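Model it.
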Amino acid sequence: MGVVGMGPVVLVHGIWNAEPGLTPRQAAEEKAEAAAKRLREGLAAARLSHIAVPPLVMAYYAHQLADDYRPEQQSAGPDRLEDLSAAQLADAWEWLRLAGVEPVEEQAALLAPVRWGIGRLVARRARGAAPGARDRLAELLSRLVVATLQDTDAYTSRPARRRAVRETVAEAVRGSGARVMVAHSLGSVVAYETLHAYPELELDLLLTLGSPLGLPALMRKLEPEPVDGRGARPPGVRHWVNIADVGDLVAVPPRLGDAFPVDHHDTTDIGLFDPHTLGGYLAGGLTAAALAPYLA
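Modeled.
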């Protein structure tokens, strides 16, 4: 069978994507190239090797989350729980309870219950693992919490910055003519708001991966704000598929369909120590299978 070509796909990245020393264009090109390699693995895993990896366009916005962007000084920022504000710690505790952590007695300092809650999640996810593996997972989950809350606040706290990020994503769609968007992590929040802000953008498929859209702390900040706990469907989206890893702490709750008009939801398992990365999702056959019908 010959190789079937696909139309372009716009990718919207999530947390942990600042690239020190690179211009935004360079970072976008490097990340698109890395994503193409992982998607090729996913197509092979789904037995869809006859479908070529489509042209990927990364809507790169990580530099726009910084107050004073200069390529040589760009960094990913701190990843320590101690760096969270009191409000962010409160959001983190609400998040952990939504993930199934049992309530604890109220404490004056929120840092202790957040650490305890992450430990409970590690004990559940890594049951039977060696102590060293559990420590690594606890560190990973802590960094996920910190990066998600800090990047979310960086995006939502400044109206001008928020508009600029959304324009970056809209221009990626307009410039490429893409009819498919894959939005990962915080990128799913950015994509959701962009598609509402620019209703003329039409997509055959919106594929969200590891999305935190359903987190109460995030839903309270969305534009447009959900009504009675339900988010509105972006007007130009024909079909919306959501995929969440069973251990992805960012994708809580994993079923966006309970709060958003998602057409199809799937869960996957991309690994104990790779539960959230875009590359991990793209390399899974489930993501490739979701893309194939809309692009081949």
